[in-house]
Specification:
The complex is a heterodimer of chains A (about 160) and B (about 180). Chain A is α+β, with helices and mostly antiparallel strands. In chain A, about 35% of the residues lie in helices and about 30% in strands. Chain A contains one helix and six strands. In chain A, strand 5 and strand 6 form a beta hairpin. The longest helix of chain A has about 60 residues. By secondary structure, chain B is of the alpha+beta class. In chain B, strands 1-2-3-4-5 form a five-stranded antiparallel sheet, with helices on one face. The longest helix of chain B has about 55 residues. Classes of the chains: A alpha+beta (about 160), B alpha+beta (about 180). Chains A and B meet through helix 1 of A and helix 1 and strand 8 of B.
């Protein structure tokens, strides 16, 4: 008597076939998904870098004016920095929540603290400040930091 | 002597059913394979376009970071680079950014991969004096560059709008280190 395929055998073979098809479809979609993630993270990186650039510019402006380099950030904490294209000035204000950035869907928050003495909350006399810039997008965030001295490297 | 052993073959219906299932499987597999190849080519092209944009934008960022003597208009920026060469970036009529160094012009981006809709530069105004205007300065402290581009991947065009911020290194005290 010739034995035909049993139901479990057929079921298993169909399952394997379906799984391989699903795997191929998922694999093809993951290419574009990865690329989209790269794009999102690149934008997030730019938003975080922009925060550091604002902090550098603000420090340079104050040094040039012979004023305290830590303009508007006299105590350690979190701040929002942005550039107003109408007034052509950098805005800074204290905030505990991230503020919208130049790119919709991306927000940013900067943290200032004394680099030499992290427990010192009064930044007036700090010689160097650590600035941390964080950008937030969806569930992800990117964090960059820099140490700013109270003098400019090319100061004469 | 006649044999009473009956050799049983496939019936027509069985053969048809097998052929049908086989055809369906082949069609599904080839469609999936086609999609896989297409998305691979598409993502490779997009990656190329994205990298091309990224490298060009980083070139602009680096040059401005180390530049001095800035002369800025809305979609053009001219300055001296770290070696005191005269450098200019501007948007031309072919929707590409031109990198001009000592009057030698080079397109910065591959026109087949990146097409510019706009290239805008925002900057702080070096005016006023130290007593009444806290923005008194000798040189620009900040540049905000807005890129609005289309990444071209043959079958798919993806718009990208991105802002880049640069605080030039030579922006305190001296505006002309090349003198």
């Amino acid at each position: 008597m010739n034995k035909a395929f049993t139901l479990p055998e057929l079921f298993i073979s169909l399952l394997i076939l379906s799984l391989s098809l699903v795997f191929l479809v998922t694999f093809s979609n993951s290419y574009l998904s990865i690329l989209n993630d790269i794009r999102k993270r690149y934008l997030g990186l730019n938003v975080a870098q922009a925060g550091l650039e604002y902090a550098i510019a603000l420090r340079n402006k104050q040094i040039e004016n012979n004023q305290n380099p830590w303009s508007g950030v006299f105590s350690s904490g979190s701040y929002c920095l942005s550039f107003n294209t109408t007034t052509k000035r950098i805005n800074i204000f204290s905030s505990t929540q991230p503020c919208p950035s130049e790119i919709p869907g991306y927000s940013r928050l900067l943290f200032y603290k004394d680099f030499e003495n992290p427990n010192n909350n009064n930044l007036n006399n700090a010689r160097a400040i650590k600035v941390i810039s964080e950008s937030y997008f969806g569930k992800d965030k990117i964090r960059l930091d820099i140490v700013l001295t109270k003098w400019h490297p090319i100061q004469r | 002597m006649a044999s009473n052993t009956k050799i049983k073959g496939f019936t027509l219906i069985e053969s048809m059913a097998v052929l049908f299932l086989f055809t369906v499987a082949i069609v599904l597999s080839s469609q999936t394979y086609n999609n896989l190849v297409n998305s691979s080519v598409l993502s490779q092209n997009l990656q190329l376009a994205f990298d091309n944009f990224r490298f060009g934008a980083e070139k602009i960022w680096n040059e401005i970071k180390n530049g001095s003597n800035f002369i800025v208009s809305q979609n053009s920026i001219e300055f001296l680079d770290r070696n005191c060469n005269k450098v200019q970036f501007y948007l031309n009529q072919n929707n590409n950014i031109i990198f001009n160094i000592n009057n030698n012009e080079t397109p910065l981006f591959d026109s087949e991969l990146v097409k510019f809709n706009s290239f805008e530069i925002f900057y702080d105004q070096p005016s006023g004096n130290s007593l009444i205007d806290p923005y008194f300065k000798y040189s620009n402290k900040i540049f905000l560059i807005k890129y609005s581009v289309i990444l071209q991947a043959k079958t798919l065009n993806i718009p990208l709008e991105i802002y880049q911020v640069v605080a030039p290194s030579n922006s305190a005290f001296i505006n002309n280190p090349c003198q």
